[in-house]
Write a structure and sequence with these properties.
Chain lengths: 252, 148
Amino acid sequence: MHGFANPARFLRIARWATPLCLLLGFALAAGALVWGVFFAPADALQGDTVRIVYLHVPTAWLGMGGWSAIAIASFTEIVWRHPLAGIAARAVALPGAVFTALCLITGSIWGRPAWGTWWVWDGRLTSMLVLLFLYFGYMALDAAARGSQQARQGQSRITAIFGLVGAVNIPVIHYSVTWWNSLHQPPSITMGKSAMAADFLVPLLIATVGFSLIFGGIVMARMRTILADEQAEARLRRKAMRAQAPVAGEAW
Amino acid sequence: MAVRAKHQRLVLLGIALVALIGAGLLATWALRSQASYFYVPADMAANPPEADRAVRLGGMVERGSMKNAPDGVTVNFIVTDGKARIPVRFAGIRPALFVEGSGVVAEGKLGRDGTFVADNLLAKHDEKYVPREMKDMQQARKAIENTK
């Protein structure tokens, strides 16, 4: 655990892991989508409409997984002060928000033919929309904390706390369809069981793995950017200091 | 010293998390009856909403209960949850997935005669995904078993 918290080691691994994740992810996701759209069977009840599931479920899983990652990273940052954890949390926020938005958009497009409505305020849809707003809030808070110079590295304390508190929404999203009557159906895939025929399940799982790899690749690329930014900033600061006080600079 | 501070943070954060989860559970528990999207027939039969309040009724369309009125747009059917049955009347365009034996959410008002008058229907589908050919095979098998 401590080994991974070392930014130098992270950069060494991420240098080859980032393109690997992205390439493999794009290949798997594209393959699964082609399979799902052109070769997988139509659903008995829903017909061809069901094919949007290969986009909807992976984006939903990554939208929720993204915030779970933010929460774990925030916990690690607060307790153990690992700078890399904070950087990881900051890097996850934007792709997490994008995938959550994609989930809401594909869900809405699916809802029109399947349910007969673009949007309803039931538990699942509403809690997923709340997740999107939480991501926006997290990013705004992070940007504000960055401006106030408090947090040079990683996320500020207040952003980390927000990341933890927001995690309350994740089980609410998951159980919204069991706790309350909702228009959204209960989960098809639960621990070791699937109410989904293998013809749908296999391409769906491949698509989920593919999109997860893409997500991981994006997060690593963003973490490298943040680390490089901080390095450049630190160098500029040193330079500015030397220019201001040449005597003191030489003494160091 | 550093280890003690770390330990302290871990304990503090643990207590904060427990409090947070407790608060979340309490809130969702309080929301239990409020955040439901629709009434199920048993709820509606036990405590019916006021006659002119807009509510939603959700359940299964009972098999064999769907009857088209001669005017061509009105349909009468029964929504059931296995415990209670509520008759529903609807006039308008039905969603494609609205069939007997499938889930439905009807938006409308409970009439004084006990019939739910819907002004909008939403089809609710279940968590099962089955290819068309497999469904045909299952139905064929069931038909064979029924004739035995």
